[in-house]
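Think of the structure tokens as a kind of shorthand, similar to the way a musician reads notation: each symbol stands for something richer, in this case the local conformation of the backbone. In the example below we present two proteins back to back. Begin with the first one, reading the sequence and then the tokens, and try to describe in your own words what changes along the chain.
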Amino acid sequence: MTGRVADRLTALGLELPQVAAPVAAYVPAVRTGNLIHTSGQLPFVGGELPLTGKVGAQVSAETAQELAATCALNAVAAVAALLDGDLDRVVRIVKVVGFVASDPSFTGQPGVINGASTLLGEIFGEAGVHARSAVGVAVLPLDSPVELEIVAEIAD
């Protein structure tokens, strides 16, 4: 992978991971027209979840924010896979939807998903600024603390 976005990843000390294998009947990302929609990305590192549990109980908000950034990096990898690695074709990250497995008393979902939003801004610059939802849920697949999906607009 070469280009402007690849240079930013290198400057940030990041490397795109292998795209996580689906845990059910779906694909990691789909292109329709000039949009790529990712499936929900968990914070897999080396094929495994580094932590499980509810944010605000077993997982701190700060740790969950780091996990959200990992989800974002995994989502970028899924986008890159459909673009043969050419992330310079990303015109804009249009939308981010973040899910936070939350203890019933936890209300800091937006702060957790900031981990993903901040990283996308660092990777893509102005093109990484997006619309967003941050949703608290009772449980996520594999008891993951966070899950993230993105929609990216791409140039032909």
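Once you have a description of the first chain, move to the second and do the same.
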Amino acid sequence: MSLEKFLNKAVSSWMSAEGPDSDIILSSRIRLARNLRNYKFPTLFSNDDAREIINKVNEILQAKVFQPYGEMELLQVDELKSLQKRVLVEKHLISPRLADDASHGAVLLSENEDISIMINEEDHVRIQCLFPGLQLTEALERANAIDDILEEKVNYAFDEDLGYLTSCPTNVGTGLRASVMVHLPALILTRQINRIIPAINQLGLVVRGIYGEGSEALGNIFQISNQITLGKSEEDIIGDLTSVVQQIIAQERSAREALVKTSNIQLEDRVYRSYGILANSRIIETKEAAECLSDVRLGIDAGYINHLSKNILNELMILTQPGFLQQYAGGPLRPVERDIKRASFIRERLKLEERDS
């Protein structure tokens, strides 16, 4: 498969589109956790229960009423190959937990992959909506619309005092997990991030790596999300997160301006050295590629580089992960083979970008 065809098939809409504050906010995600009444939670239910829940949710969401959001495709996780599951995790469309526990799970994906509904993960249903840039309110509206469609046909496990009941106590209440993916290279370079992350944690939010809990912050990309779902309304959760994120946006922009003002030539040199590595390397590891991509994206935002799209970081941070590289290659690769393929992939992608600019 040519790279161009592969990209057309592989890139989700939220990766290739721009949204509000997309120079810093790569994406917004809303996830609602729900469980069906009269069924045991996924940790205890039977295979028959699991199949019944998958069929019920799929039947409801495949109905004509759901069509405004596009066609939905049901994928049974136990029917997917290991590499296919890895790619879905890398695209943030399913969780590592769902990929690993294949016997009971499924996922419903919209055509442009901005909606992902995981079935029988930690909870019976997890509705996930992804938007480019800072669009938490818009993502919540879409997730709630899908939630309403389901709730018309099924009874949720709900308590008048506690709210929605979930497998994990931290999700009880609204069942809402809101998060944004942020690119913070200037706060890293100026080391301001060391005081900002503890301050964020004290506000009831959590800062994680690019793939959530336990993952590394590759390429200066972090996920910031709420920790508390009980005792707060959805609007309060979104409002609090948005307020903090807007402060971070202001601080990152201020740090970028300071770097351009005080260290312009050094910053420009860093950007072009990283671009040179990406454009010419014959072998490159994941971490080095992520760092260089972060520098190049900063260079695009700062105006040093004008012939590349801002979306290059969003795309290549995901498309150069191990699963994608092996899918593009057509089969499993050893680590060193992946590093060679990653370098080749990046060179080809940059050439495509330069051709189309």
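Compare your description with these statements about the second chain. The longest strand covers residues 25-34.
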